[in-house]
Amino acid sequence: MEPKDCHAVIDYTRGMKRLFRTCLMIVLLPAIAGCATAFSAMEAPEIHVINIVPLEAEGLFEQRARVYLRIINPNDVDLSMTGFSFHMDINDAPFTRGVSNESLTVPRLGEAKASVIVTTTVVDLARQMMAFEGHDNPNYTIEGKVYLANSRMRSVSFSYSGELTGSR
After folding, report:
1. Which residue, among 70, 66, 54, has the nearest Cα to 129 in the 3D structure?
2. Beta strands in 32-154, from DSSP E residues, in sequence order
3. How far apart, in Å, are the Cα atoms of 48 and each of 45, 85, 112, 134?
4. Which end of the chain has fewer CB atoms < 10 Å from its terminal CB, N or C?
5. CB atoms within 10 A of CB 102
């Protein structure tokens, strides 16, 4: 082979590689953009505290309670949950943490109720009782994650603030 022919083969190979990379990018970019859209399209659920019922304590330094929650799904698809975890503050002070591995499906643009048993310390409970003085309706913040059955997304974070009405 003459040197001229070698350069032609090298140029042809480089051109094919460049064409292959361009075609690959044309095919992959819409797929990557579609994945990003699918992940960002999921709106966080609203989780409201609807009641807190004290339970029998299991020790001298802790108090257990059942927290009843209303989960609102603002999405146009069912929210299939495999569980959730959260922490809750009352009047801007830490109150409790909770976890649940209960599976639940919240219908599209709908709501469902769930409950979880939580534990708080006597110190946190005493702090909350002192903070209740002068508050007809204490405020709360609940933040955490909802774990999804959907394999594309493992979890969605949520945060909601409201008032505990009828607490007195």
Report:
1. 54
2. 46-54, 62-72, 79-90, 93-100, 104-106, 111-121, 139-148
3. 10, 14, 11, 23
4. N
5. 12
Q: How far is CA 6 from the centre of its chain?
A: 59
Two tokens, residue 25: 């990018």
Would you give the distance in Å from CA 38 to the centre of its chain?
15
Name which of 24-33, 120-129, 132-141 the model is least confident about. Answer: 24-33
pLDDT digits (tens, 9 = 90+) for 12-53: 667 667 766 676 667 766 666 555 444 456 788 999 999 889
Amino acid at 126: A
Q: What is the CA radius of gyration of the chain?
A: 27
pTM score over 0.70: no
